[in-house]
Known about the structure:
The complex is a heterodimer of chains A (530) and B (203).
Chain A (H helix, E strand, L loop, with lengths): L2 E2 L4 H4 L10 H7 L3 H29 L10 H36 L7 H20 L18 H4 L2 H30 L12 H32 L13 H35 L6 H14 L15 H13 L1 H15 L8 H24 L1 H7 L3 H31 L5 H27 L14 H30 L33 E2 L1
Antiparallel strand pairs in A: 1-2
Helix pairs in contact in A: 3-4, 3-5, 3-17, 4-7, 4-9, 4-15, 5-7, 7-8, 8-9, 8-10, 9-13, 9-15, 10-12, 12-13, 13-15, 13-16, 15-16, 15-17, 16-17
Chain B lengths: L13 H33 L34 E9 L5 E5 L3 E4 L4 E10 L5 E10 L7 E6 L5 E3 L4 E10 L9 E10 L5 H7 L2
Parallel strand pairs in B: 1-9
Antiparallel strand pairs in B: 1-3, 2-4, 4-8, 5-7, 5-9, 6-8
Amino acid sequence: MNTTTVNDTAGHHDHDHDHAPAGLMRWLTSTNHKDIGTLYLWFSLFMFFFAGALAMLIRAELFQPGLQYVQPAVFNQLTTMHGLIMIFGAIMPSLVGFANWQVPLMIGAPDMAFPRLNNWSFWLLPAAGTLLIATFFVPGGAISGGWTMYPPLYMQGGIAYDISILAVHILGVSSIMGAINIIVTILNMRAPGMTLMKMPLFVWTWLITAFLLVAVMPVLACAITMLLTDRNFGTHFFDAAGGGDPVMFQHVFWFFGHPEVYIMILPAFGIVSTILPTFARKPLFGYVSMVYAVASIAFLSFIVWAHHMFTTGMPLGGQLFFMYTTMLIAIPTGIKVFNWVATLWRGSISFETPMLFSLAFVILFTIGGFSGLVLALVPVDIQLQDTYYVVAHFHYVLFSGSAMAIMAGVYYWLPKWTGHMYDEKLGKLHFWLTAIAFNITFFPMHFLGLAGMPRRIPDYALQFADFNAIASVGGLLLGASQLLFLYIVVKCARGGAPAGDQPWEGADTLEWTLSSPPPYHSFVTPPLVK
Amino acid sequence: MSVSVNTSMPVRSHRQLLIKLLAVIALAFAFGFALVPLYDVFCQVTGLNGKTGAKPGTLGLAGISKPVTAPPSSIDRSRTVTVEFMGTVMPGLPWEMTPLTSSLDLHPGELQQAMFRVRNLSDKTIVGQAIPSVSPGLAAQHFEKLDCFCFAQQTLAPGETKDMPLTFIVKPELDKDIRTITLAYAFFIVTDTNPAAKNLASR
Lengths: 530, 203
Ligand code: HEM
Ligand SMILES: [Cu+2]
């Protein structure tokens, strides 16, 4: 993209945070998209480690058959809270953090459209996070019926269930406010000349993700509101005793839930689609088809929800419909994978850490997509539902998909955000440890699932022992490797070799026309995009 | 390459867009609740959720409530269907429920009876209500209960044991692919502590 910067702030505006208050008040009251993006990213990193610690306990317990460290009731709390916090506390906020930092920089806008709203969207998160973590300490312990919150289990627990409903409500409100901000910013505040079809793909994926959020977060709010009134106010939406139907909850939940998984992967697609061209030193192959592929994935995500419910007793017609629509999603997804590969074709590729993570993403996410296709087949799913095969599937798409794309993005933009280069040697070490440990952890879970090991159990039959031991060793290594990530990020934030404005020679989006770190108020005069 | 600032971008109003987005959010929220009646209507039309045709007027379940017909004369002796019985007691009800008939092999069209033994484990008189569910769901519309303890609330004195009968017919129209049907009962407590059940009792 050719850009002519008519922006006089970039060079000589030293970022002395002129009228911003200092210290804690700066962060509490900040309406600056860079500050808020930073807050989002730190918050999600903290939650990532918290939920990761729960996973470490899960894997320790599953290292060998029998009950070792935790009682079954506690084990159920661990799996439930691990899932809930990873999804709502780690993956989603970190992607919003990326949006905050990058969307204004990439479209040449001075800030987000509603800066004050932006401050609110963030500061709701620590409140919700605290509530969620606090539930471990209330009578009866944290929620334990699975992150999907299915009744009738969800009707029977103690106060933690009501607190968690409140927390998820708060998280939902925060997501909706964030989505509004992102949509208005992208639609209204692009620099002159930046038409929709000139927007960087990351911006496109976030625009579509924000529409998904606006459409489905209210549906989740409905579902959990009905749970709340069923629990406390004598309604019987899901209570069979009063003529309600627990299966209905699953329909409402997954009507939100499936688009939700795309909310977590589409921005990751955007990050990878930004990084691959940079290090292949070629423009993204098939930009237009990428945009249409993302849009059609988003559309299809609304009509596949019952593939999570094949075993609830559906007529053949329903099973076939949801099977075929689910398999249809493989087409736009395949287009994306082919375009990524074609972008690499004959490029002059170099393998810096962000590129390594992105390449691993392409391969490992595709494996997760394939196991998803396997699960889409009704007769197969009836065998595999609620086994470790599902656990393997969603970790390939969520960890090696979303989480590794997020790490790629962090390495890619850290030099811009901090002005320092991260430690490349350590970054590469972190990559190899993560990629190898990830596969040691989760690849054997495919075999466990095929052999029939159910998920969400603290103890298991002896024939599953070997693969579980392997997975646990991998899991603990994977968890430990992430401490290296924390170290690298902190080290880079504190200092390091100056990055220069353009640390990646192949990068051509607008943020690279600014200094590193960018001035506190950037693009006060919009750049001109040709 | 002209460096004149491009003013062709229309000045857009944040406010207008915000209002539109808020409308979308309100719609989505309303849609979430609209799913409830939609779901009931859908199940009523298709009979998919395994709710059997309870005697009209007794439970008012959202399933199909067709009037009970007389036993058809035609018995389909060409095939055998297995019916399995299950009984559970929901939390809060200190009862015990065991199907005395665990399963029956029958020809569609035959009049059959199954027995359940229910015992009150507490030292109080308690009222309970059984809710049936048939799977696969599509079999429910062909599972006709002529007489059932689930048609009314059941009262058990302290320590009392009662054998409760169910008389039913699996209609010959049952789909040929269905060879096994499971009928599961869940007993719910009917007292003030369970508002939902109280609600049910008052209907
Ligand atoms: C250090 C990395 C991780 C390890 C070792 C790990 C391990 C596990 C284990 C052992 C389970 C429980 C399986 C069961 O019995 O049901 C689980 C569940 C789950 N994980 Fe992870 N996980 C990791 C990272 C992630 C990430 C990054 C996500 C992203 C969102 C994630 C999302 C989930 C979800 C949604 C569940 C299902 C929870 C439930 O169904 O109750 N995990 N994970
Ligand atoms: Cu899905």
